[in-house]
Amino acid sequence: DAREIFDTVWPSVAGGSQVQANLLRAIVHAGGYASAAYAGDRPVAAAFGFCGRHRGADGAWQDLLHSHMAAVLDEVRDRHIGTTLKLHQRLWALEQSIPVITWTFDPLVRRNARLNLLKLGVEVRGYEVNFYGDMDDALNSGDPSDRVFAWWVVASDRAERAACGGLEPLTDIEIESSDRRFVVELPDDIVALRSSDPDDALRWRLLVRDRLTSAFDEGSVIIGTDFAGNYVLERHRL
Fold first, then answer.
1. Which of 2, 19, 57, 69 could lock onto 46 through a cystine, CB 3.0 to 4.6 A?
2. Mean of pLDDT over the chain
3. CATH, domain 2-168, list 3.10.450.50, 3.40.630.30, 2.60.40.10, 3.30.413.10
């Protein structure tokens, strides 16, 4: 069921499968995570991840769950099923005493920004240029696979506030109240733009890449979004 959902959401240009069923079985057998959401008896969303470790700045290793893929069928996309899947993942991690869930997401997709920053309360840690190399699925083909990294501390106050609906977009007044805050704009719909105007899609990719990598290098952090779904960043005090 999960494999069919992944292949529907990310159909391969070459006609292959994104995830083999035997791989999912092996991940679960080894203690990883997999789940599916149903509308009646029909699967409409799925996610999976594998357990790993992260080495911190102090040299200590920390256990984590890396959420590799999550997919929701387009026909049910606006029913908060994706959020529910991630919250189920959070509960699973809490039950397993796993403190952090990580994943990557495309920084150009506005719904990614809203979901991850406001509905889940993640931190964004770092930007990687063309992280997965060339991708052959219909949504990403022809575009560099730049990704930012989500770091979700599942027992944090921020994650709890997000789960209770306590994180809101920042208003213009809140953004303009500090000279350390600034906005990085995103395209309205990068997925549609890749099909209608690939050159403009690439222009957006390079523009946002430059702005975010420069901001991160200078110590700025993403603190949320505005009401349009653009990133709001804050510079650290010198």
1. 2
2. 92
3. 3.40.630.30
